[in-house]
Specification:
With about 500 residues, the chain is an all-alpha fold. Helices cover about 65% and strands about 0% of the residues. It is built from 23 helices and four strands.
């Protein structure tokens, strides 16, 4: 992110991160034992100096091992380190007698450390090479912190001492600006007047707020109102998303850079976006439209799947409750069923008695509508759970229409080859609903039914005496939105 306006430099690292890179190391006793030990070459270099210079060369070697940097310090800052060095390597020297070396001496010590470590300073040629490399890296990402860390890593690989943080800040700023200028120049060429107007409109205000403020808003839940607003936001971004997708590919904007440019729309206020150069603001807004569209799409997909699963869960729970109730009712009526069976061996009933009279007696003992469930219970017939589930979907019809239809119409679907019947049915229903046509206006015979498995056909067709079975278009819609036998089997909702 950019720094406040009083500074022309990018604010890339926090103060703590800067200190971790460029601050004088603060060692523990264990770390001093590790960093202030000398190998043979280092020991020769140290002991070839006078005692005061040798005492300062030793901690500088340790500091360079730790951070690959050179430090100008005062005696108070490094007092504990100097005392340790004296005790470890110069036990007969009084630490109080050690003074700071002069500037020319410090430069000489620096050169000694560079020779011992095989490093070199970052001179003008190295900086120019580093900036060219950073320019290439910016094609992958213009995140300043990413560029900075890549540059530091490259310097370490090349055994070059990193220059001052301000130099790297300026270099990063130039690289980011150069890459942004490259992209905005391409955007100027690619923009049509219509797309430019659509982008600029994002920063315009209506009677209540700026459009971009509404488009940034996230849904709070999966309620109908929240999802309707999310669908409206998706539709607002649709045309910009199509243009953005082709432009991002044309300009070679990486996914990381695109996300970074998009994040700046959330970072800056509308006031600051409106004060930016138009080409820069348009780039940020276009990337925001691209990524926000995809995020919205993901939100709608998640909501659609959640609602489908919720309705399935409700239907299963209703079927389970109905099954338990049916079993309980049937069991409680076994005594009455026994009395009905007793009619067949009742000697007081003459063989010539009309069956209608016997049936009337039976219905007096056991209600007519209870015969089938009690009979099934006695014969251990499996409970028709699927039938109760589809019956419950009928009671949910209004909820499904209200909450799923607008999502179903907005999303795009794709799948594998074996999903062709389901995809055909989805395309048929989406075309119907998107054109505002009622299901009752379409002949049931025209509905694609290849996706309906045989074991579910009896629940999706209605039969009338003397007439052929007809598809129940209401159930057919639920079947297509619920994916046939189970929600979205082997189906992928397109996210872009």
């Amino acid at each position: 992110m950019q720094a406040p306006e009083r500074s022309h430099r990018l604010s890339i690292l926090t103060r703590q991160e800067i200190d971790d890179l460029y601050g004088v190391p603060r060692f523990t006793d264990e770390e001093r034992q590790a960093y202030f030990e000398l190998d043979e070459a280092e020991s020769r270099a140290v002991h070839s100096r006078t005692i005061p210079i040798a005492v300062h060369l030793t901690p500088q070697l340790g500091y360079f091992r730790a951070k690959r940097q050179f430090f100008d310090y005062d005696l108070e800052t490094v007092q504990e380190d100097l005392h340790y060095v004296v005790r470890r390597h110069f036990p007969h020297v009084d630490p109080a007698a050690i003074s700071l070396p002069s500037r020319p001496t410090r430069r000489a010590l620096r050169d000694t450390i560079l020779d011992l470590s095989g490093y070199r300073l970052c001179d003008n040629a190295a900086r120019e090479d580093l900036e060219h490399r950073a320019q290439r890296i910016a094609m992958r990402s213009t995140q300043p912190v990413y560029l900075l860390r890549e540059m530091l890593q490259y310097l370490n690989q090349q055994r070059i001492v990193a220059p001052a943080y301000a130099i790297l800040q300026d270099m990063t700023g130039r690289v980011v600006t150069s890459e942004r200028q490259r992209i905005t120049a391409l955007l100027d060429e690619a923009l049509t007047p219509d797309i430019a107007q659509r982008i600029d409109a994002l920063l315009q205000a209506d009677e209540s707020a700026y459009r971009i403020t509404f488009l940034k808003r996230e849904p709070q839940d999966f309620s109908w109102r929240e999802l309707r607003e999310e669908v409206a936001r998706r539709q607002s971004f649709a045309s910009l998303h199509e243009f953005a997708r082709s432009f991002i590919e044309l300009a070679g904007i990486s996914a990381e850079s695109g996300r970074y440019y998009a994040s700046l729309v959330r970072y800056y206020t509308v006031y600051k976006l409106r004060r930016m150069p138009a080409r820069v603001a348009r780039l940020y807004l276009l990337c925001f439209a691209f990524h926000r569209f995809r995020q919205i799409n993901d939100n709608l997909i998640e909501a659609f799947i959640h609602l489908v699963h919720q309705y399935e869960k409700w239907a299963r729970a209703a079927a389970q409750e109905a099954m338990l109730k049916a079993q309980s009712d049937a069991g409680s009526r076994l005594q009455a069923a026994g009395k009905v069976l007793g009619l067949f061996v009742d000697e007081t009933i003459a063989d010539s008695t009309p069956f209608s009279k016997v049936r009337k007696q039976a219905f007096a003992l056991l209600e007519r509508e209870q015969f089938e469930p009690v009979s099934g219970y006695l014969r251990n017939v499996a409970f028709d759970r699927a039938g109760f589930e589809w019956a419950h979907y009928a009671t949910l019809s209004a909820k499904i229409k209200r909450n799923l239809r607008h999502l179903f119409c907005e999303l795009e679907f794709s799948g594998r080859i074996e999903d062709a019947p389901l995809l055909e049915a989805i395309a048929f229903l989406q075309d119907l609903l998107r054109n505002g046509r009622s299901l009752r206006q379409v002949k049931p015979a025209t509905f694609p039914v290849a996706l309906i498995p045989k074991n579910l056909q009896r629940y999706l067709y209605t039969s009338e005496p003397g007439r052929k079975k007809r598809l129940d278009v209401r159930c057919a819609e639920h079947a297509q939105q619920l994916g046939g036998a189970s929600p979205l089997p082997n189906l992928m909702v397109v996210k872009s």
